Amino acid sequence: MHQQTPALYNDCAYTMISAEEISVLVDRIAAEVQATYQDSPRRLIMVVILKGSMPFAAELLKRLTLPVELEFMKVSSYGAGTKSSGEIKISLDLVRDDLQDIDLLLIEDIVDSGRTLSRLTDLLRNRNAHSVRTCTLLDKPSRREVDFTPDFCGTVVPDEFVVGFGLDYNEKYRNLPFIGVLKPEIYS
Ligand code: PRP
Questions:
Q1: Of 112, 122, 139, 151, which one is the catalytic site residue?
Q2: At a CB cut-off of 8 Å and minimum separation 6, what does 62 contact?
Q3: Is the predicted pLDDT of residue 43 greater than 50, yes or no?
Q4: What angle do CA 62, 102, 132 make, to 5 degrees?
Q5: Once rounded to an integer, what is the mean pLDDT over residues 76-80?
Q6: Separation of CA 114 and ligand 1 centre (Å)
Q7: N or C: which end of the chain has fewer CB within 10 A?
Q8: Is 151 a catalytic residue?
């Protein structure tokens, strides 16, 4: 394929999860999601939390055979310096307000402090969604600042600077097809 390893790849110290391993994780999550919702009479909406979860959401979506709809939200923490406030800023919200008979499945690439999904699930439950579940490819429980456990999880990862398959550093590396650990000299 590549004659030379692309420079972007060389910024990674090592591959934590290969493309093939990601595929196996997504297969398993898809089977779990499918089993959870297959007997539900309600509409299921996958809510993709931009931007990092896009590749994962696309792979998951392709594996589901039940009727599923797609929506997007974009959420960010309220400034790095005010992390303890736990507030989140919604820059792209769901278009629809009528969530009464809807199962929502929030899709994330990674859970870190847990603040984003914790706040978001509270918010959407308050909008009367019938159910709100969360699904993440990666989980870093060692970084947790609030009590939060995702309903579906690909794998737990150690507290390393991971990039790729949607995860970025300064908006780069999202296009890597694997999850890599960034070399410290890149970000320090
Ligand atoms: C990342 C990730 C989650 C959030 C997790 O998003 O995609 O949304 O951080 O962190 P938390 O558990 O501490 O809340 P980020 O803000 O980097 O935006 P991005 O997806 O656009 O890269």
A1: 112
A2: none
A3: yes
A4: 80
A5: 65
A6: 9
A7: N
A8: no
Q: Residue 142 and residue 73: Cα distance in Å, rounded?
A: 26
Domain layout of the chain by residue ranges: 19-157
* pTM (two decimals): 0.94
Cβ of 139 closer than 6 Å to ligand 1, yes or no, is no
Ligand 1 geometric centre to CA of 154 (Å):
16
Checking if the pLDDT of 70 tops 90, the result is: yes
In angstroms, what is the span from residue 106 Cα to ligand 1's centroid?
Answer: 13
Full strand arrangement of the beta sheet holding 69-77: 88-92, 69-77, 43-50, 102-111, 131-139, 152-156
Q: What is the position in ligand 1's atom list of the atom closest to the CA of 52?
A: 20
- Verify whether ligand 1 is closer than 6 Å to residue 115 (CB atom): yes
CATH architecture of 19-157: 3-Layer(aba) Sandwich (3.40)
114 lines ligand 1 (CB under 6 A): yes
For the Cβ of 138 lying below 6 angstroms from any atom of ligand 1, the answer is no
**Per-residue pLDDT, 3:** 67
pLDDT category at 1 given cuts 50, 70, 90 is low
Residue 155 parent element (H or E):
strand 152-156
Q: How far apart are CA 43 and CA 33, in angstroms?
A: 14
pLDDT digits (tens, 9 = 90+) for 127-186: 999 999 999 999 999 999 999 999 999 999 999 999 999 999 999 999 999 999 999 999
